[in-house]
């Protein structure tokens, strides 16, 4: 009986040590490096959700590149919706600072 209680205590102690190390590491990783997100809707078709509204794609959002301002034309980015701050939207970058855009096409760089 004493041996089984000792095993349980060791197990709980090891679990708690692992838990208190893994949770901060996971939270930091998801906040600073990357996270997984589900994409729903048709705005990014055919690149994402080619099946339409019946399916949703899963993407890895790279926080590191955005924090270092490494965004280029053609990249797909996720941002907070200007119309609804509780919603995130996903869009493709078609122009950068200094570019002139008309009708969804880049015209020239200033």
TrEMBL record:
Manganese in keyword set: no
Catalytic residues (positions): 43, 91
Subcellular location(s) of the protein: Mitochondrion inner membrane
Species in which this protein is naturally found: Pongo abelii
Lineage: Eukaryota, Metazoa, Chordata, Craniata, Vertebrata
Peptidase S26 domain: residues covered: 14-102
Entry-linked PANTHER family: MITOCHONDRIAL INNER MEMBRANE PROTEASE SUBUNIT 2 (PTHR46041:SF2)
Function: Catalyzes the removal of transit peptides required for the targeting of proteins from the mitochondrial matrix, across the inner membrane, into the inter-membrane space. Known to process the nuclear encoded protein DIABLO.
Protein family according to the UniProt entry: Belongs to the peptidase S26 family. IMP2 subfamily.
Enzyme Commission code: 3.4.21.-
UniProt entry keywords in alphabetical sequence: Hydrolase, Membrane, Mitochondrion, Mitochondrion inner membrane, Protease, Transmembrane, Transmembrane helix
Name of this protein: Mitochondrial inner membrane protease subunit
Membrane topology: Single-pass membrane protein
Primary subcellular site in the record, as a coarse category: mitochondrion
SUPFAM superfamilies per record: LexA/Signal peptidase
């Amino acid at each position: 009986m004493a041996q089984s209680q000792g095993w349980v205590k060791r197990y709980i102690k090891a679990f708690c040590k692992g838990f208190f190390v893994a949770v901060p590491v996971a939270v930091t990783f998801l906040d600073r490096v990357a996270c997984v997100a589900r994409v729903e809707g048709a705005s990014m078709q055919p690149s994402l959700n080619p099946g339409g509204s019946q399916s949703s794609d899963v993407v890895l959002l790279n926080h590191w590149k955005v924090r270092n301002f490494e965004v280029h034309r053609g990249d797909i980015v996720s941002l907070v919706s200007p119309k609804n701050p509780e919603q995130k939207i996903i869009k493709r970058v078609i122009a950068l600072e200094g570019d002139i855009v008309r009708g969804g096409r880049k015209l020239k760089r200033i």
